[in-house]
Structures are given as structure tokens and as C-alpha cells.
User: What shape does this take?
Amino acid sequence: MNRRKFIQLLSQGLVGTALLPALASAAQPADKRRLQFVFAQVKYRGGDWNPHPLSVTPLMEELMARTSVEAATARHEASLTDRDLFNYPFLYLTGKYEFEPFTQEEIEVLRRFLTYGGFMLIDDALGQQGYGFDKAVRREMLRVFPGNEFKRMPAGHAALRSYYLLRRVGGVRLVSPALESITLGNQTPVVYCQNGLCAAWERDQVGKWTNACTPGGEPQRRDAFHLGINLILYAMTENYKDDLIHVPFIRKRLTR
Assistant: This one.
């Protein structure tokens, strides 16, 4: 099952309701309906699953300002065993420290979620390779997909062209100039960034950036927002070259 089919099932109520045509009123014309994107963040045991709690709203605001996507500004917090997990085609996993191993049930659920068309962005908020969060992520993803390790994402990958044409990977720091990913057939359900995207997105309650981006400053922060937007749109459409990425076009295709 690819992501277009996943979202189509959502729209028909066969998988869930987190990405559905939202009506302002029952009588609203079909062409006024909006697909609402919900940013679902994974909670886990141990470590720190929420190192930058104010990071999601700025990204959702930028997503709506720059694209035709309607988004919930507040994130949804989800455990891997939640009954409504499959309501959300996009999952976000972040942290700084090593966390407890997933249970076998969680491993099986995550494997099914990613195999059936779901997408997960993993964001290392610490940025120390082989230590802490990075160590735990690599360990757990090998359990999810045995023998399928992270590999460097090609510069021409569709996720880097789904809205912005990205030549750089941003973040609060530059640990790695490239993303890593796991590929299943012709799909890429897992993307991993070690540059601390969430720290670059985060504003405090009065609107000031909470973290400086080094060494590249504000252009590096801009790249982090552009990457977040690209990955959300990639998660919603799977392939930029085969699928037009603006939501009005997605909506038309889902109703055919």
C-alpha cells in the first residue's frame, strides 16, 4: 500500500479520521472542503521524547503560510500502541538520550504502519553519532526492519524536491550534510536527520527563537523549515514527480 492509498482510506473512514475533509458546516460545498494535516509525535519510555515542546506550532504556521495545506497548530501525542495511531500518516520521533527498547508489540505495530504507507521523520536533538538517541534509534529501527540499515539519501530524492528544491539540510547544528533514510522497494517510509530540526523550529511564548543556529545562522534555520515542509508534503503524496503536491490537486485525485 502506498501513501496515496493510505490517505484515500483515511478519507473514506476505513483507517482513521486525522486527515479528513473538514467541513466548516455540513452544507458547505465540496470545493470548500479542506484536508487537515495533524503532526503526530511519538511518546516513548526513558530518555526525553519531547526536548523542544514549542517547536511544532511554528512549523505548522509556516506550512500553512507557504502551502495550501490546512494544519492543526497543536501536535498530537501518540504512543506506538495507541488505537488511533493509524489515523496519522505522518509520525515524528525525536529526543536527546538513549531510550528504552520498544516492546515486541510496538515493533510489530511500527513495522506495519511503515509498510502500509505511513511515514516517520526521526530527528536527533542531541546530534552525537553513536551515542544517546542516535544509538537507540539505530538499534530499534534494525529491529523494525532487520538487515535494512539507514543509508545516505540521494541528493535527487523526491523528498528533497516535494516543494522546495533543497540543496542543503538545515537544523540547529550541522552534524551531517545529508539525510539518512530507509527504503522499502520504491518507497522511503523513514527519514532521519541528525541536525536538530526541532531546536531550529522552536520559538518561545513571545515569539523569539529559543536556539541559535550554528554555524550558518538564519539561512540554516530557513533550510530547517523548508526541510520540514518538504517532508510533510512528501509524506502526503509520496512522489513529487508522479503526484502534484498541492492539496487541492490531492483532493481531486482522491475523489476519482
Summary: Strands lie at 21-22, 34-37, 40-43, 70-71, 76-79, 90-95, 119-124, 151-152, 180-184, 187-193. Confidence is low (pLDDT under 50) at residues 10-33, 240-256. The two ends are 18 Å apart (CA to CA).
